[in-house]
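About this split. The held-out portion is used to measure sequence recovery: a designer receives only the structure tokens and must propose an amino acid at every position. Recovery is the fraction of positions where the proposal matches the reference. Here is one held-out target exactly as it appears in the evaluation file.
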């Protein structure tokens, strides 16, 4: 079964920047609150999965009219199930899903299926809980949460046959980066048509990162080493300036954005194992935050030639 990686928008929708569209381009859909639908539908063509606060037929039909491809309704009572059944008859079960609490009684999973839900949405990625809940229903599952790393995502897909999609927020675990990693692990995803072949040859680690060494293009001085995720690599390729991912700040950063000491990319190589990048760039100013031209200016040992 082909899997999906959705982008999770938990709050109001903000018009995506040109850079952020790189993230959305690889997403199979956007999971968002119903009240954010109109703005999101106006800004992008990515399929929208709308989550409603209450089980209401009119609100669900309004969400469809405002651009939702799929709607999810909360399910906790028989009355909710009746609304779900009515909506499923109107729209078809493939467009209607049930939102269930991770601690919901297992009987609700059967009720969702009997009511005509085509999917289940759970806000958890805790592995033991997901395995228990996945065994309670044959319906495809969509999970939203914050996995520890992509190895956990691999386990979730491997251990739960009904897991259809993960919804992830932020710029570390982006749809493109997750698809790249999990495709290498044997899972099947629809990959962007414009992806270069070498993307799948790169060995990002379980945190979605790969080390990048930056070298001065003119005299081959080694300037610095920093971490990239696939998003920062895509921006580097697109803009010709270096972008990295900070593990401590958990955010993207551009070299020289505040100091003006930017690096203009000339060439990018990957090594024979695909697990390290080498970037040849022309350095403006200095590379090191300590004021030195190169970050590698602390001599540890020097051996004289005999």
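Reference sequence for scoring:
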């Amino acid at each position: 079964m082909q899997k999906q990686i959705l982008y999770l928008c938990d709050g109001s929708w903000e018009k995506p920047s040109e850079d952020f569209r790189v993230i959305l381009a690889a997403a199979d859909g956007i999971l968002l609150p119903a009240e954010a639908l109109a703005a999101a539908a106006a800004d992008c063509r990515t399929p929208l999965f709308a989550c409603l606060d209450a089980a209401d037929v009119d609100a669900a039909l309004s969400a469809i009219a405002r651009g939702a491809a799929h709607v999810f309704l909360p399910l906790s009572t028989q009355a909710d199930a009746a609304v779900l059944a009515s909506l499923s008859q109107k729209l078809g079960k493939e467009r209607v899903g049930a939102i269930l609490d991770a601690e919901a009684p297992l009987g609700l999973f059967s009720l969702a299926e009997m009511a005509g839900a085509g999917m289940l949405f759970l806000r958890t990625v805790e592995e033991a809980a997901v395995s228990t809940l996945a065994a309670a229903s044959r319906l495809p599952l969509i999970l939203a949460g914050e996995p520890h790393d992509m190895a956990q995502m691999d386990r979730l897909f491997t251990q739960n046959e009904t897991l259809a999609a993960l919804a992830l927020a932020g710029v570390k675990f982006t749809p493109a980066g997750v698809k790249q990693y999990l495709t290498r692990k044997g899972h099947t995803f629809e990959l962007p048509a414009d992806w270069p072949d070498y993307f799948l040859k790169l060995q990002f680690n379980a945190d979605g990162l790969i080390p990048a060494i930056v070298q001065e293009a003119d005299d081959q001085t080694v300037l610095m080493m920093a971490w990239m995720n696939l998003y920062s690599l895509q921006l580097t390729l697109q803009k010709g300036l270096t972008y990295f991912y900070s593990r401590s700040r958990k955010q993207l950063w551009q070299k020289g954005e505040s100091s003006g000491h930017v690096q203009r990319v000339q060439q990018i190589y990957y090594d024979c194992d695909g697990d390290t990048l080498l970037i040849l760039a022309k350095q403006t100013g200095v590379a090191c935050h300590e004021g030195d031209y190169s970050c590698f200016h602390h001599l540890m040992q020097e051996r004289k030639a005999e």
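Annotator remark: The two ends are 63 Å apart (CA to CA).
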